[in-house]
Specification:
The chain has 119 residues and is α/β, with parallel strands linked by helices. The protein has a single domain, classed as Beta-carbonic Anhydrase, Chain A (3-Layer(aba) Sandwich). The chain is built from 3 helices and 5 strands; from the N terminus they run βαβαβαββ. The protein has a 5-stranded mixed beta sheet, sandwiched between helices. Helix 3 links the parallel strand 3 and strand 4. The model has no long low-confidence stretch (mean pLDDT 96).
Length: 119
């Protein structure tokens, strides 16, 4: 069984859509990955977390790093482009640390969530 991990923003407008986009991109079911949420999503965490390391140790093959625009309270006053740049940096850093996993960058904006596989 493949497993995953998703770090996302807790914003009620985007958290379920982000989870659905992650599931569609990875083929994982809702009970096949760990989640960790806080305002600001992945860019709001200063580095890796215990939950991320635990999921990786337990075999998470798919790891998603998410944030959203459209006024994120975790990054009050910052533009969508600024938050997207922060997410991009965070996803690249996590991909280096968790090198055996496949990484996804997920960004919510305008009611949609886009998914880009991290190279």
């Amino acid at each position: 069984m493949e497993l995953g991990y998703l770090q996302l923003c807790a914003d009620r407008r985007f958290h379920r859509r982000t989870m659905e986009a992650f599931e569609a991109a990875t083929g994982l079911g809702p009970d096949e990955y760990w989640i960790e949420a806080r305002p600001g999503g992945a860019p709001a965490y200063p580095g890796t977390t215990n939950a991320g390391r635990l999921a990786y140790r337990e075999g998470a093959l798919h790891m998603g790093w998410a944030a959203h625009g459209d006024r994120c309270l975790g990054f009050s006053g910052e533009s969508n482009d600024e938050i997207r740049r922060k997410l991009h940096r965070a996803a690249r850093a996590r991909a280096e640390e968790f090198a055996r996993a496949i990484h996804y960058e997920l960004f919510g904006e305008g009611g949609d969530v886009t998914v880009v596989r991290v190279a």
